[in-house]
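Consider this one:
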Amino acid sequence: MQEALLHLKGCDPVLQRLIGEVGPYAIEYLEPCFETLVKSIVYQQLSGKVARVIFNRLAAAAGVGPLTPESVLKLRPARMRAAGLSQQKVAYIRDLARRTRSGEVDFGALQALPDDEVCRSLTSVKGIGVWTAQMFLIFALRRVDVLPSADLGIRAALRKLYGLPELPNPAHVEELAREWRPYSTVASWYLWRSLEKNP
């Protein structure tokens, strides 16, 4: 990881300052499993705090232990809605549960695939878009060069840190981040942390 930090500090003075302020890289990983992908669906288009509350309610309703396709499918949709999930997210999570139970989604097989193939595989599932696939790549599969260029947090952090007049669009994010490769995930983690330090 030292190599990644040296690269980012050397190619971008803004990141150099940010890494100094935030401190060591301490990303928290999740298991590359069904529960993690459910969590990513819950977190879509929500703030982290709100999503965390909803996910915890869903997990509590499903019972003890990690979420499984079976524990989700035992819940009535109305109970899932009562946890705070939208009707659409309930449908997405239940569809993922059915596909996982049938073997159509194979979490073990994803480990061996390159990033673009993981994205293709996951986004073929209803309700899983590029952002969700990217979060799975970063936090579950531990890939180091993922840039979620449409992520609102990344865009907000870039606007603040680089003094931009407005939120950069995804193409502008890609342009600003060109030099970060092959460590875009590491840079993204620091950008997210910058929002937590100075909301």
Observations:
- The CA atoms of residues 157 and 163 lie 10 Å apart.
- The mean pLDDT is 93.
- The domain at 34-139 is CATH 1.10.340.30 (Endonuclease III; domain 1).
